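User: structure tokens for NAD(P)-binding domain-containing protein, please.
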Amino acid sequence: MINVLIIGAGGQIPRYLIPLLQEQPAITLTLFSRHAARLPYDGMRKITGQASHVPDLVEAMQGQDIVYMNFDDKRITEAVIDAMHQTGVKRIIQAGVLGVYGEVAAPFSAWNSQMLGQSVATNRGIEALEVSDLDYVYMRMTWLYNGSRQEYVASPKGEPFLGAQITRQAIAQFVTDTITGKRQDHRASIGLWEPGSEYKAKPDFY
Ligand SMILES: NC(=O)c1ccc[n+]([C@@H]2O[C@H](COP(=O)([O-])OP(=O)(O)OC[C@H]3O[C@@H](n4cnc5c(N)ncnc54)[C@H](OP(=O)(O)O)[C@@H]3O)[C@@H](O)[C@H]2O)c1
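Assistant: Done. Predicted tokens:
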């Protein structure tokens, strides 16, 4: 069995991810949220807590194999890493942002910078993960939308970031592929976009 803890389970990506993981007989899910009672899932443990509060995290992490963190904040990532050290959990997948290395390429880079400004790429979880001893996968996700496409391009650190959009369904597929071992990324920072969205000046939905 693989025990998976989802932190930020009330977010939009988990609406796609949780059903995918529920299809996997070898996976047991625990959901951690600021409002766990609102989560519309049966047959799994649900914990209400603050992700910035290490004791809440330590309680939720007992016996877990992998943490999926559905948001990206350096200070809270450091709290999650602290709790992982206290509980012996080694693996984490984090939903993060594009541009943390200034890697976004033209023509998309102009629109992306205009929309986000420069500040988005600093104080991110990747800064804490890269100096940790953990087995992490940090997802540098491009602009998200809700749709049924499942395909993704996974771009390693060091390559230019080319894609302008991706579905939350495809992100959920990438996370599932990582958890189930279909993908083997370790201590990796992966750019994610939809095939065919390379060299767009902006997402189609803007
Ligand atoms: N929209 C885009 O184009 C885009 C692109 C790249 C990255 N992202 C980022 O990707 C992440 C996942 O996407 P999504 O669509 O699933 O986002 P979302 O619907 O905003 O979900 C994020 C969840 O993370 C938890 N969370 C966020 N900030 C928190 C905090 N300070 N303390 C504790 N929990 C916190 C909350 O979970 P609970 O409600 O369960 O507590 C929240 O529902 C988000 O952080 C988003 O900003 C978005």
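User: Anything notable?

Assistant: The chain has one domain: 2-193.
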